[in-house]
Write a structure and sequence with these properties.
Layout (H helix, E strand, L loop, with lengths): L1 H19 L2 E2 L11 E2 L6 H20 L8 H22 L4 H17 L6 E5 L2 E3 L2 H21 L6 H19 L3 H23 L11 H20 L12 H8 L1 H16 L12 H7 L4 H24 L5 H25 L7
Antiparallel strand pairs: 1-2, 3-4
Helix pairs in contact: 1-2, 1-7, 2-7, 3-4, 3-8, 4-5, 5-8, 5-10, 6-7, 6-8, 6-9, 6-12, 8-9, 9-12, 11-12, 11-13
């Protein structure tokens, strides 16, 4: 249902952008060379919600039982998601300052711990297990805002933010199905569905035929916020929702490891080179792979394979009984550092600078 909605909505959005002249224009910081419509993300929420409602109605009629109840955090999540979605649309249409978007992100994220949804256990990370609410609540806000911006910042080449989000959502879908949390599973499946037509138009769409589109902030911020919510939801130790599992936090981290570590790497690099932390540059992982000689599509495939490699490593270690999340995260960091070292070596061999 969501895929069908996406293939209906996105062509309508393309026509609207053409009529109103709503394009993402190229500049020295961006990879694309043509003016591309930037409102693809507007299709995400309607497609996801239509599929969600239809699936629940079909389920209710089939089983004769009501399959969903509206908890406080479900209501707060919907309100906060609408805030993020609305800010993204306004930014795509008229433009908003970074401070305004950041403020709204914090406000939306604060609704989650206020509803009772927050990180309350680190599952042994750095030797820490249960944590009090006064620590977990601000940590939850930080994680949601961090993930939201990580997805937004990595949306730099065709298919990257959408592809990484699709993989992460697929992982969360398996996790929530495993715990029999089918309401969330339906929601996730609906979001995955609309990403299929979006990726089709974004990666394979022809500029000449006016079929190419970007998701814009309405898409990247919406994806990031939902992924942040799912991270907290699955990582929270709540026996009323699902049994305690030692790998809950590890799996949540694994789903989003590439965008999260890349943002940390960029912040460290800007600090070491004494550059403003919020100044945009071309030093994200996709930029570096392209300076190393890859095309956009080659960089996309490489990063997606890297994300799958991290998933394979972490899930394998978890299944073998290695639940020491600290050690596994250190292994992930070592793998990422070795990967970036090889990329930087290739960049220097091509006569370019690793940091621009």
């Amino acid at each position: 249902m969501s895929i069908v909605c996406g293939f209906i909505f996105i062509p309508l959005i393309l026509n609207f952008c053409e009529k109103k002249g709503l394009y993402d224009l190229p500049n020295e910081r961006k990879v694309h060379k043509n003016a591309i419509p930037r409102l693809g993300g507007i299709s995400f929420m309607p497609s996801m919600l239509v599929a969600f409602v239809v699936a629940l109605l079909v389920s209710d009629n089939y089983t004769g039982e009501r399959q969903v109840t509206m908890s406080l955090w479900s209501c707060f999540f919907l309100v906060s998601l609408l805030l993020i979605y609305g800010v993204g649309i306004i930014d795509d249409l008229t433009g908003l300052g970074a401070k305004t978007k950041f403020t709204v992100q914090i406000m939306a994220a604060c609704l989650m711990p206020l509803s009772g949804l927050y990180i309350n256990n680190l599952y042994g990370f750095c030797g820490i297990n249960e944590i009090p609410a006064w620590v977990g609540m601000p940590l939850t806000v930080f994680i949601i805002v961090f993930i939201d911006n990580a997805i937004n910042l990595i949306d730099g080449i065709d298919g990257l933010a959408g592809g990484l989000s699709f993989l992460a959502l697929g992982g969360f879908l398996l996790c929530f199905v495993r715990e029999s949390l089918f309401t969330y599973s339906i929601l996730i499946a609906g979001l995955m569905g609309v990403l299929v037509p979006y990726l089709y138009f974004n990666v394979l769409g022809s500029v000449e035929k006016k079929q190419k589109i970007f998701m814009g902030d309405s898409g990247s911020l919406t994806l990031g916020f939902i992924l942040g919510f799912l991270f907290i939801k699955f990582a929270m130790d709540n026996p009323n929702v699902m049994p305690f599992r030692k790998d809950s936090l590890l799996l949540s981290f694994t789903m989003l490891i590439v965008p999260m570590i890349d943002v940390v790497r960029v912040v460290i690099a800007r600090t070491l080179h004494r550059r403003p932390l919020f100044q945009a540059d071309k030093n994200h992982i996709h930029h570096k792979l392209m300076r190393a000689g890859m095309t956009q599509h080659q960089a996309l495939i490489t990063i997606l394979l890297l994300a799958l490699a991290f998933t394979t490593i972490n899930v394998t270690l978890s299944h073998l009984g290695y639940y020491d999340i600290t050690l596994i995260v250190l292994v992930d960091l070592l793998v990422f550092v070795l990967f970036m070292t090889m990329v930087n070596k290739r960049i220097r061999k091509n006569g370019a600078q690793p940091f621009v």
